[in-house]
Fold this protein.
Amino acid sequence: MNTRALRLPRTPARHGWRFPLGLLLPAAMLVAAEVGVRSGAVPANLLPAPSQVLQTIIALAEHGLAAHVASSALRVAIGFASGAALGILLGAAVALSRRLDAILDPTLQALRAIPSLAWVPLLLLWLGIDEAPKLVLIAIGAFFPVYMGTVAGIGGVDRKLVEVGRLYRLGRGALLRRVLLPAALPSLMTGLRNGLGLAWMFMVAAELIAASRGLGYLLSDGRETSRADIVIAAIVLLALLGKASDSGLRALERRYLSWRDSFQATNP
């Protein structure tokens, strides 16, 4: 038997080519937008040239843009941390108890289907227009993906691992901490990344309704003043912040899941 045919390709240790390749599509889109606007094929009032958007960002930076970015980032950080923590706790409880699963999961699945904007009027009525409704809305956005990832991860743990833990006389808490959560970490990290993305989306929804500072406020201000360059500048900043935060979670994922012997695509 030819053993070479059975060998799996080695996973490359580094993917230094990923970053430059990831820039190809955004660069092509920027060039196409710049050429389209300057040639007159695209109306500048609807889609400003990337060079004009860059000038707008520089101008905003001179007039308090850092405060808007900091406000939005802080709201996302607090809301995401709160929603993710609750999602992990409830997800673990539901995954470990059939009774809690029967009691809680149907209601949570129904609540998960409610659109983000549907929560806004109720939160404004209950909590006013200060920071509380914004943080609660962001926490709601982060909660459900983390909850789903935790339930799916713990529910998918190999039964043999649990039996080994019981052979070592691990208690319920130790079994959860030392066996179930580590084995469920791949699904949990996926839930955390999805929850973080939804936290940014829900933050925009919250700031569009009632805010005097933040990137969502800039979006609303650009719409009301018919400044498409401000709207696109805010969208670009949201994309950059979302990508940066997701890259941070992805780095943690690579670090804490380095033990996985999973498939990696090798074809260029």
Q: What stands out?
A: Confidence is low (pLDDT under 50) at residues 1-13. The chain has one domain: 48-256. The chain has eleven helices and no strands.
